[in-house]
UniProtKB/TrEMBL annotation:
Keywords: Hydrolase, Protease, Serine protease. It comes from the Bacteria. Gene3D superfamilies: alpha/beta hydrolase, Prolyl oligopeptidase, N-terminal domain. Residues 7-413 form the Peptidase S9A N-terminal domain. PANTHER family: PROLYL ENDOPEPTIDASE (PTHR42881). This is prolyl oligopeptidase. Its EC number is 3.4.21.26. Residues 482-693 form the Peptidase S9 prolyl oligopeptidase catalytic domain. InterPro entries: AB_hydrolase_fold, Pept_S9A_N, Peptidase_S9_cat, Peptidase_S9A, Prolyl_oligopep/macrocyclase.
Length: 696
């Protein structure tokens, strides 16, 4: 890659500190203040990266093809049902951002809310929404330029009129409408920081500044909270009970408010307790050690997915009136399948499993009886599901690596799923694209699932450009995703591989724990072992192999970069966590301490040093080409994290290969991006990787 300009050189000002007898040297600590000098340097990096990326020989053609492929699919997601209405977030091929739509009982659909109409700089996006039980109103969370600091817009679903707005900052969809459909409880951060957050009760038409605090630290003696805990109030659509879900660590974003939980405490109380929140008789149901990861309720029963004494989880049932977990009834025993979550649909309990990376659904009568599998219409993954609050209905969005998402309905008949036809089929032909899952023997003998996707006529001659990606944190599962734009890569003979690393959730809690804290080294070595396996099977070779990771995916990619730089032609790291020893000093850092560790203890520091790629960069090493990305509004991984690594690599590498810092001015952590932002990023990444591998 020819240098059109040189990137600005970052000032070195080494900060040395000794923690638990270990000395750390940080040459770019000054960047963390994000002052004028940092932003001037970052502006220069952004201009340099843009100049370099725009000059790549494959970029223009890739962007044209990606836009062509992306214009062929309407995306449906974020489903909800209320009364006779079905709500969904929809992005038409020519739309910048998704809009909220409503489909009436007669099948007529219309746009209910377009965030593009919200005034302000940059763009606005819908983060999540919750309709009222009667389907009349929708509470819709909207943030600017993907900032994730949402304001709540209350919309009249009959007219589409905006009724009122609750100012930021709300970040999670723990919003429950009450039965009157005129009031709701919701969670909000106070004073733009993440400590001492609270749940409030809001009445339509009332001043949000006067909303009643219903769950907060120090409010009720029955509920113990630390400053970093998030108190979420859940009011089910039926029955006389409500739940308090106290999160002690990081959580997945919407729509997973009743699943994918971790490190939570669960309480139950009569919903009449909302009248006097300070005296509400909350009763402890489960603590962190009980390992609750999902829940569902009927009128009188609480169903909990728990990994305690069951590494791949089981389902327990307790009466809401007497929720003694020691006397819980085992509804779904532990098995080889991973129990992900449960839903109550009419008089049946639906159980969603993960079976070797494929979604399965079992069902059983609430009154008791044997579990039975429901026939699945697609051999893939359930991306999301939603149930009707009153009727025995469920909607499931399913997809595979090579099949576009389809929307299925379950009518509580205990038989099967029916295609609704609401999600149109993609016109992009993936008939010649092949996906398979291998099992890679890790260095300790553990089989690591590795999904490999490519054109079916690919020659295994070791000369194909390949991208390996992985996440491996938080127990998150790498679900199959259909991206028609990736056909541009497969048409060029490219291989795309997804490593289902330890630290993720491919095999439940045991898989998560195997790559957590001081065991995080396994996440990195699994990634390297998967890369070497691709080479051994002649999918690619070291000179044509690239890696990609986002957010905590910066841990395996960053670790692989500094441990085995010779393996990679290129490395693309998006909004990555790469300076883990400084992570807890970020806005969202404290809630990630249970997952990664803390420098306040020697054990925690040593765990963080395993995953701190920035501190492991050495002078004079020939590092591969590296593309780092950030969004100026990212509240999860602030720009200085990837910026410090970019500066360190630019100063240290001896390879002469580029280290670029790509900056998105109106962007944050990825969600809420416009169509153009997503397509241009993909073109940049693929062109960067292809050029680096062509030159190897």
């Amino acid at each position: 890659m020819s240098d059109l300009t040189e990137p600005p050189i970052a000032r070195v000002d080494v900060v040395r500190e000794t923690l638990h007898g270990i000395t750390l040297e940080d040459p770019y600590r000054w960047m963390e203040t994000e002052g004028e000098e940092f932003h001037h340097w970052l502006d220069g990096q952004a201009r340099h990266a843009r100049e370099q990326l725009d000059a790549l020989p494959h970029r223009s053609g890739l962007l044209t093809r990606i836009r062509e492929l992306g214009s062929a699919l309407t995306r449906y997601f974020g489903l909800a049902m209320a009364a006779e209405r079905v709500f969904a977030l929809v992005r038409e091929p020519d739309a910048r951002v998704p809009v909220l739509t409503v489909t009436e009982a007669d099948g007529a659909s219309r746009v209910l809310f377009d965030p593009g109409t919200v005034p302000g700089d940059g763009h606005h996006a819908i983060d999540w929404y919750v309709p009222s039980p009667d389907g009349r109103y929708v509470a819709c969370a909207v943030s600017a330029s993907g900032s994730e600091n949402s304001s709540i817009h209350v919309i009249d679903a009959d007219s589409g009129v905006l009724l009122e707005t609750i100012p930021p900052t709300t970040r999670f969809a723990f919003l429950s409408w009450l039965e009157d459909s005129r009031s709701f409880v919701y969670h909000r951060y106070v004073e733009q920081h993440l400590l001492n957050s609270r749940s409030f009760l809001h009445q339509l038409g009332a001043d949000p500044a006067q909303d009643t605090v219903v769950l907060a630290r120090g409010l009720n003696p029955h509920v113990e909270l630390t400053p970093r805990d998030r108190p979420f109030l859940v009011v089910p659509p039926h029955g006389e009970w409500m739940l308090a879900i106290i999160s002690h660590s990081a959580l997945s974003p919407w729509p997973w408010t009743s699943e994918q939980l971790s490190d939570c405490t669960v309480y139950v109380a009569p919903r009449a307790g909302l009248a006097d929140p300070a005296a509400c008789p909350w009763r402890l149901v489960a603590g962190v050690a009980d390992g609750v990861t999902a829940f569902a309720t009927s009128h009188d029963t609480l169903y909990l997915v728990s990994h305690r004494d069951a590494p791949r989880s089981r389902v327990l049932a307790v009466p809401l009136a007497a929720p003694d977990l020691s006397c819980a009834r085992v509804v779904v025993p532990a098995s080889e399948r991973v129990v992900e979550t449960v839903r109550v649909v009419g008089d049946r309990l639906l159980v969603r499993d993960l079976d070797g990376g494929v979604s399965r659904v079992r069902h059983a009568p609430l009154s008791g009886g044997e579990l039975a599998d429901l026939p699945m219409s697609l051999e893939g993954a359930i991306l999301e599901w939603t149930t009707h609050p009153e009727r025995p209905e469920a909607l499931l969005l399913m997809a595979s690596w090579t099949d576009a998402p389809r929307l299925y309905r379950y009518d509580g008949d205990g038989q099967s799923f029916q295609d609704t036809g609401l999600a149109p089929r993609s016109s992009v032909d993936f008939g010649d694209v092949y996906a398979r899952t291998l099992h890679v023997p890790a260095r300790d003998g553990t089989p690591i699932p590795l999904t490999v996707i490519h054109h079916k006529d690919l020659k295994l001659d070791g000369d194909n450009p390949a991208v390996l990606t992985g996440y491996g944190s938080g127990g998150l599962i790498d679900l199959p995703e259909f991206h028609p734009e990736m056909l541009a890569w497969y048409e060029l003979g490219g291989v795309y591989a997804v490593a289902h690393l330890r630290g993720g959730g491919a095999y439940g809690r045991e898989w998560h724990e195997a790559g957590r804290d001081e065991r995080k080294e396994a996440t990195i070595t699994d990634f390297i072992d998967c890369a070497e396996h691709l080479i051994a099977l002649s999918y690619t070779r070291a000179g044509r192999l690239a890696a990609e990771g986002a957010s905590s995916g910066g841990i395996p990619t960053g670790g692989a970069l500094v441990h085995r730089p010779e393996l990679w032609a290129a490395m693309a790291m998006h909004v990555p966590t790469v300076n883990a020893t400084r992570n807890e000093f970020t806005e969202s850092g404290p809630i990630n301490v249970p997952e990664f560790g803390s420098i306040t203890t020697e054990e925690g520091l040593r765990a963080l040093l395993i995953i701190d790629a920035y501190l492991r960069v050495h002078d004079g090493v020939p590092y591969p080409a590296v593309l780092l990305t950030t969004g100026l509004r990212d509240a999860r991984v602030p720009p200085w994290q990837p910026a410090k690594l970019a500066a360190r690599l630019q100063a240290a590498t001896s390879s002469g290969r580029p280290v670029l810092m790509r900056v998105e001015e109106h962007g944050w952590h990825g969600a809420g991006s416009t169509r153009d932002q997503e397509q241009e990023l993909l073109a940049d990444v693929l062109a960067f990787i292809l050029h680096a591998s062509d030159g190897s």
